[in-house]
Amino acid sequence: MEMKEQLVFISGASRGLGASLARSFAREGARVVINYYQSRDIAEALAEELGDRAFAVYADIRDETEVGQAVTEAEAHFDRPVTTIVNNALVGFKFDPAAQKAADRLSWEDYQTQLDGSLKGPFHLVQACLPGMKAAGFGRIINVGTNLVQNPVVAYHEYTTAKAALLGFTRNMAKELGAEGITVNMVSGGLLRETDASRVTSDEVFGIIEATTPLQRVTTPDELADAVLFFSSPWSRAVTGQNLVVDGGLVMD
Prior knowledge:
This protein is an alpha/beta fold. It has a single domain (3-190, 224-244), classed as Rossmann fold. Helix content is 43%, strand content 15%. The chain has helices at residues 16-27, 40-50, 64-78, 108-136, 157-177, 203-212, 221-232; strands at 7-10, 31-36, 54-58, 84-87, 139-146, 182-189, 243-246. It has a 7-stranded parallel beta sheet with strand order 3-2-1-4-5-6-7, sandwiched between helices. The longest helix has 29 residues, at 108-136. It is globular and about 50 Å long. 45% of the residues are buried. The mean pLDDT is 91.
C-alpha cells in the first residue's frame, strides 16, 4: 500500500519525536492520527498545521477502553481503518544520568511504569487496530526502541528493560501476523537531539556521543523518522521482525 493510502496512528505524537513522525508521514501524503495524553493544545495545533489529513485524538495508551475509543474515533473521522501503527509514546521518563536511580534504590513500581508505557500501550493499540488490518490484508506496525538494549552505556534499568520486552513483542507479533500481510518491526534510536526526554541531558553527554559515533554527530528526530517511513513504505514489504538501530553507527549490530 502506498503511503498516501495509509492511515497512520502515532502514539505520543504531539511533541518531540512524535511530532517529527507526524510531519514526516504528512509530508509523504499519509493521513495521520496524532495521539496525545496531556498536550491537547499542542496536538491540536500540530493537526491544524498539517491540515485536513491530520486528526488529533486523546487516549492514555495504558487504558484499553480509551485506546479503543480513540481508534474508533479516528477511523470514523477518516472513514477508513488504521493501516499503520507507530508505537512511540514514552511515559514518565527522562534521560538524566544524574537522577537515574541505582539498582538498590529502584522499586518495582519504577519498572511497572515503563512496562505499562512501552509494552501495555502497544499491546492495546495493536489489538484495537488488528481487525481493520486483517480485513484489509495489510498492516505496518513500527515500534520505537532504543540502542541501549544492545549497549547500555547508562544503566537506565527500567526504561531499557521495558524496551527489551518490546523487542520480544515485536518479533512474536511479526511471526504470527505475517500471514495476514502485516509486518512488525522496531526502530531503535540513540539519544536524540532534542526531545522532551533528552532536554535534561547535559552538553557533556551529547559531546561524548558525538566523539564516539562514526558520523560524529547526534541523531535527530527527523532522521529516525526517515527509518520509520521506510518500514511503512512498499520498499520494506519483505522485511519483518527486525530491529534497525538508527544512531549514526554508535552501535553496530
